[in-house]
């Protein structure tokens, strides 16, 4: 028998390739079989789980918190001074935040994060770019969105376990009781006395504690009204509304961004204590924060005033008549955070930005000196931007520098009218010798009135100040 022929070199290579392909095929088949077996086992296990009884629980508990609650609030639950029962009360509690601004922003975020059961958010305004330096619940993307909606979105994104209600029409005597009635605690995060008195009265007549704070400039204050034996309400401390000119607002006085942040967080702390039933609530005490000194001070407040019209022995403000109470007449101020617009000069002593611009243009065309413009804003506002021909004398220095003002008029080439005007307020305006400019047209009116008392009779006010100039003539101008 003839021996088998040895394969040639090319045949050997062919057989090796076939063997490699067969090994690959075998490996693939093994993988497919293993996958199929795993799927079979998983399906069998699922069927057993669906059809059979649930596995016995290996733990016992007698509280209302779900596994998600426990995980989310674990750091509260670990706290010996807070713990399970306080967290349960917090989760069942409700708080109304009136104002979704500098105070309301951090308060709402921390209360949502802490697990308050229901959060009510009140506002009437929309998000503005100038809000964002302190109202951190809002975002650039939500500029122009209603503040209550924007704040609700942020709270929902932070904690979907919290129920969030929005009250979009703001807070007014007609809706105050209906809104407050649905909550356990109220947080005053507004910035005007008219709404503060209304919130106070609504809380008093409905028996709700009121966590109140304020932040202006670099200072903050915090207290809890209407809570506990003999604790005063806002009216007990302030039976008369402060005069409008004595009310500092962030829009006028400025505010350091983190200061309302700190006060809003402290309001959230008081609410958590109130709802959780722990700690000493800041009733009958006022916490004062001086940010520049880095100092907190607590002072004792007086008790309830027996003659208080809201919480005294014979209150005249009741559930029945609160809606008809005229809070604007009582405070003399509109219920907004914006500065009031003064109107102390007759039209004859006022010009519009367009009129002033016309005078400036005609002077430039005819080669005359530009009209004298006096800017009475504080130095920090003047240095931010001002009209090119403006002279700066702050309002507070007018009396001391009145001769400088008269020199300014004499030097403006408007000699035919400088110092010679004789019109009294209410008479026909002489040709202006001096145009007085301020931020919004309030101080400029007061300045013109004061200059007239000092013998400068031909000064006029520029209506609406730099804000109006920017709005009506030059939108590129940076205004504050
Ligand atoms: Zn009172």
UniProtKB/TrEMBL annotation:
Pathway named in the protein's UniProt entry: Cofactor biosynthesis; molybdopterin biosynthesis; tRNA modification; 5-methoxycarbonylmethyl-2-thiouridine-tRNA biosynthesis
Keywords tagged on the record: ATP-binding, Cytoplasm, Metal-binding, Molybdenum cofactor biosynthesis, Multifunctional enzyme, Nucleotide-binding, Transferase, tRNA processing, Zinc
Skewed-composition ranges (Low complexity): 42-51
Signal peptide (from-to): none
Active site: 250 (glycyl thioester intermediate), 438 (cysteine persulfide intermediate)
Residues the record lists as binding ATP: 102, 123, 130-134, 147, 191-192
Primary localisation category: cytoplasm
PANTHER family given in the database record: ADENYLYLTRANSFERASE AND SULFURTRANSFERASE MOCS3 (PTHR10953:SF102), UBIQUITIN-ACTIVATING ENZYME E1 (PTHR10953)
Protein name (database record): Adenylyltransferase and sulfurtransferase MOCS3
